[in-house]
Amino acid sequence: PSERLYSLGRYFAKGRMPKLHEAHRHSQRIIDQKQTSSPRFEESFTEFLTRLAGQTNIDLVWSVPCTTGGKGQEGADRLQWYRQTAARLLGAEESTHVREAKPLEAPLKGLGHQARLAANSNRFAVEGDLAGKSILLIDDVWTTGSTLNAVTEVARAAGATSVIKVVFGLNQVPPVPQRRGWYAADSKYLRQN
Q: What is the mean pLDDT of residues 135-141?
């Protein structure tokens, strides 16, 4: 089974690293994206998709189900433009096979890795058979990876053979893990398992 993680940049949390957040335009755009359904990363996302199209075949495009769309936008689908654009450019199906089966009892913000894992346990469900399918999975920020990994687990259980994850930013607090396979290229952070 193939699994990769791509990030369009780094994210500095406003509450923990206010000076870096303020100085880092990419971090500010991520916050803007969380509060609206209007895309904020059109150019870098389209560039990423163009590179990806030459490397692999994608059958389905998903995003992590949104529980809140940002301030005053409960349930807004802020990642819809990205799913639709990826499906169009990659010749894939925009899919809604994944859904939130167990709503969060409290926000994930501020929780550590173990607490996030517990909160995401059995949180997602997949409808249909994904045997042999390759999936592009989109989310805004990778903090501990627990949400994206929870969705990946249900996709694999339904038969998906490949899950490629893309996020707008890797949260720099806690620091990005220094594992084998992490490297920077064109200021994008990538990991391949």
A: 92
